[in-house]
Specification:
GO cellular component, one term: cytoplasm
Oligomer: single chain
Structural class: mainly alpha
Helix content: 55-70%
Number of helices: 11
Strand content: under 5%
Order of helices and strands: HHHHHHHHHHH
Radius of gyration: 36 Å
InterPro entries: Ankyrin_rpt (IPR002110), Ankyrin_rpt-contain_sf (IPR036770), PP1_Regulatory_Subunit (IPR051226)
Keywords: ANK repeat, Repeat
Pfam family, one: Ank_2
Protein name: (spotted green pufferfish) hypothetical protein
């Protein structure tokens, strides 16, 4: 570090007694210390400038997430205002995540009634299926959200929708009040056990037809789908 004024005055008497060669070496040493101190100051100054520039850039740079992520995240927070803003800005209510979940699925799981109504008003598909063929009604019925189940039914939810495991919404419902509502509405719509069996059989028949077609074409019966599952 460079010497201050008092240090220089204290050294003057000593320097005066040095020979010419010794004075030269002393001057070179002192200059070296000054240059080292100056270089350190420049380094710290540059580091500070880069930090300020980085902070400024961070303030100016906005991270852009995919629309589906943004909408589902706002839905998961039950942020009705942001959901409305996103929909009004052109973000599609049909967007899904990697599991096929829509924003409507998400808020049916979390029982966010106002967001559900907002999405339905915006034209969200009430019978959208995720990768496991779960509809929003499956989600609401499983969670026992009676009010949401009623809202979805009024919006045209399919009571006979069959998921990948062969279950309809009422199969998954353990909440008494919600199950009673489903049974009442199914009775009002004239849904009988024969009709339930028929709809459940449609899915099984389609799967059987796919297997037969695969066998006839010489396909690999042990091939795995995107989820790692085989036909067995």
């Amino acid at each position: 570090m460079a010497a201050d004024h008092s240090e220089l005055l204290a050294e003057m008497a000593t320097v005066a007694r040095l020979s010419a060669g010794e004075r030269l070496k002393h001057a070179q040493k002192r200059r070296g210390q000054q240059l080292k101190a100056w270089a350190q100051m420049e380094k710290e100054s540059a580091r500070g400038s880069r930090a300020k520039a980085s902070k400024k850039k961070a303030r100016l740079t906005k991270v852009k997430f995919p629309d589906a992520v943004t909408l589902l995240e706002a839905t998961a927070r039950n942020d009705l205002d942001e959901v409305r803003q996103l929909l009004n800005s052109g973000v599609s209510q049909y967007l899904v995540n990697e599991d096929g979940l829509t924003a409507l699925h998400q808020c049916c799981i979390d029982d966010f009634v106002e967001v559900v109504q907002c999405l339905l008003d915006a034209g969200a598909c009430v019978n959208a299926c995720d990768s496991e063929l779960w509809t929003p009604l499956h989600a609401a019925a499983t969670c026992g959200h009676t009010g949401l189940v009623q809202l979805l039914i009024q919006a045209g939810a399919d009571l006979l929708a069959v998921n990948a495991d062969g279950n309809m919404p009422y199969d998954l419902c353990e909440d008494e009040a919600t199950l009673e509502l489903l049974e009442i509405v199914m009775a009002e719509q004239g849904i009988t056990q024969d009709r339930i069996d028929e709809f459940r059989g449609v899915k099984e028949a389609a799967m059987l037809a796919d297997i037969q077609a695969l066998v006839q074409s010489g396909g690999d019966l042990n091939a795995r789908d995107d989820n790692g599952a085989t036909l067995v």
